[in-house]
């Protein structure tokens, strides 16, 4: 092993460092969008249900523009090194998954699927090995959704929407049942999953309060909580 | 009829959808966890076998029956036996290579990294004994390839550098244990120069590779130990007459206060 070999390795590592810098630039754009969207969506706690569609529409262009960033990242990542670089954008991506899932629930009352997230962000099949949405990142985003919905259950009541806690309760219980199907190991996913039961409990308390005072529209829920 | 009823119940169809989707996620996560666990086990086996190889090399090099003057032959012989016992480890790498193809390599790189580094250390040790030189990256990558020359996986620079950085610690141990013989002192000087070169060459990688900084500190302390060992074993210094230190008399009240202390040797202060 002589100096020339070390120089070769050094040059390769230098190249890698350059790539990391370039990726960092692209990822920071995605990060900014992720944060700004979450900031906007935070307003749901103070927005009457009737005005939610308008609020959601304001972030649609930002969601659309994320496609440019995912494309830019995918074009930078060398083939078959997805898992080497993924840590750089995992958090931003989890935030985006959360936002998309929240919008989908508020609009349609259903869970956004992983393929739907991929499609919304313009992720292409041929990017495999360079950029995909990892299941764990998707699931992390969905756990954030449950955290957020337990807040919304409380705040919707404050804003006079007494049926929202019932819709949220059914949905969150379904999600909880879904997460219970997973055999999680002792990692961050497991820790966050363990926290979900407190969210479920909090929502149940709101549902209990509202039913006790008979504030909800009887057809909207009531018997659903039995299921 | 049945399905219409189910669908009319709000929530039910969405629950089915969610359960179906999560069934898929479970399968995917289970597969990942299972593979990671299996690779962790193999990585641990590789680590422990590599450690055994290193011990074997130490034993062969410091065997009292080694004939003085035959150092080159002893080293070459030790390296050969070392390589032989490494064949088993190579088999383990080959057995997991299928799990580490393409995109999967970087998914499990952290899982196999400890075993990989330990093996590079062992192989680097044998290589040093054989060639008196540092194991080149290309040689290591070639070793991790099948007969057709297809690599089992792309050897990361970080694992290579961190592995050979650990080698300096083993060389330190070898240098210290052999410093008591005349040939060993020559050897210790060689190793000392070698480790010093390694330390200098690795310095540029410290900011680029996570963990390198810590390794450099260890290498520095190994280097100091070899230098100290060399100095202590150096004949001129050993034979030099160093005047004995004269201990100063402890204060009187101190001695009387502690009467239970055993009496001091009488010739202590007289010399």
Automatic annotation (TrEMBL), chain A:
Residues 6-40 form a coiled coil. GO terms for molecular function: RNA binding; sequence-specific DNA binding; single-stranded DNA binding. Pfam families: Translin. It is found in: Cytoplasm; Nucleus. The keyword Cytoplasm applies. InterPro entries: Translin (IPR033956), Translin_C (IPR016069), Translin_fam (IPR002848), Translin_N (IPR016068), Translin_sf (IPR036081). It comes from the Eukaryota. GO terms for cellular component: cytoplasm; nucleus. One of its GO terms (biological process) is RNA metabolic process. Keywords: Coiled coil, Cytoplasm, DNA-binding, Nucleus, RNA-binding. Belongs to the translin family. This is Translin. It comes from Calocera cornea HHB12733.
UniProtKB/TrEMBL annotation, chain B:
Its main location: cytoplasm. Residues 255-271 have a biased composition (Polar residues). Belongs to the translin family. This is Translin. Residues 213-271 are annotated as: Disordered. Keywords: Cytoplasm, Nucleus. The lineage of its organism: Eukaryota, Fungi, Dikarya, Basidiomycota, Agaricomycotina. GO terms for cellular component: cytoplasm; nucleus. It comes from the Eukaryota. It is found in: Cytoplasm; Nucleus. It comes from Calocera cornea HHB12733. One of its GO terms (molecular function) is sequence-specific DNA binding. InterPro entries: Translin_C, Translin_fam, Translin_N, Translin_sf.
């Amino acid at each position: 092993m002589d100096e020339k070999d070390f120089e070769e390795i050094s040059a390769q590592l230098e190249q890698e460092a350059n790539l990391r810098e370039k990726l960092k630039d692209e990822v920071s754009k995605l990060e900014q969008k992720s944060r700004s969207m979450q900031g906007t969506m935070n307003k749901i706690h103070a927005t009457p249900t009737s005005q939610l569609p308008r609020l959601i529409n304001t972030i649609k262009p930002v969601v659309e523009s994320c496609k440019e960033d995912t494309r830019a990242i995918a074009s930078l990542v060398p083939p078959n090194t997805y898992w080497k670089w993924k840590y750089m954008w995992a958090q931003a991506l989890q935030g985006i998954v959360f936002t998309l899932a929240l919008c989908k629930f508020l609009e349609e009352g259903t869970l956004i699927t992983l393929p739907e997230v991929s499609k919304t962000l313009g992720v292409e099949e041929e990017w495999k090995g360079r950029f995909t949405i990892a299941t764990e990142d998707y699931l992390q985003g969905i756990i954030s959704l449950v955290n957020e919905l337990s807040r919304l259950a409380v705040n919707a009541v404050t804003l006079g929407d007494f049926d929202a806690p019932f819709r949220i309760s059914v949905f969150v219980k379904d999600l909880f049942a879904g997460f219970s199907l997973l055999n999680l190991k002792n990692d961050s996913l497991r820790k966050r999953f363990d926290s979900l039961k407190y969210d479920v409990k909090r929502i149940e308390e709101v549902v209990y309060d509202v039913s006790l005072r008979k504030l909800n529209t009887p057809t909207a829920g009531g018997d659903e909580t039995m299921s | 009829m049945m399905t219409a009823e189910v669908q009319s119940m709000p929530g039910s169809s969405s629950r089915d959808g969610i359960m179906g989707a999560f069934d898929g996620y479970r399968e995917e996560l289970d597969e990942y966890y299972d593979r990671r666990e299996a690779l962790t086990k193999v990585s641990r086996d590789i680590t422990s076998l590599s450690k055994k190889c290193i011990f074997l090399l130490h034993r062969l090099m410091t065997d009292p029956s080694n004939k003085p003057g035959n150092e080159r032959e002893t080293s070459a012989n030790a390296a050969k036996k070392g390589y032989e016992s490494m064949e088993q480890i190579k088999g383990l790498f080959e057995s997991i290579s299928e799990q580490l193809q393409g995109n999967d390599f970087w998914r499990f790189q952290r899982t196999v990294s400890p075993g990989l580094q330990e093996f590079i250390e062992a192989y680097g040790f044998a290589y040093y004994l054989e060639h008196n030189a540092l194991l080149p990256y290309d040689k290591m990558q070639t070793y991790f390839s099948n007969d057709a020359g297809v690599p089992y996986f792309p050897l990361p620079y970080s694992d290579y550098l961190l592995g050979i950085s650990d080698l300096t610690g083993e060389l330190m141990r070898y240098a210290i244990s052999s410093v008591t013989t005349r040939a060993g002192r020559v050897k210790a000087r060689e190793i000392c120069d070698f480790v010093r070169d390694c330390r200098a060459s690795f310095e540029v990688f410290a900011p680029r590779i996570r963990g390198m900084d810590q390794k450099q500190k260890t290498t520095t302390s190994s280097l100091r130990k070899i230098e100290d060992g060399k100095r202590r074993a150096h004949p001129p210094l050993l034979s030099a007459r160093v005047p004995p230190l004269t201990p100063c008399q402890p204060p009187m009240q101190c001695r009387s206060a502690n009467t239970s202390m055993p009496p001091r040797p009488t010739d202590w202060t007289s010399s």
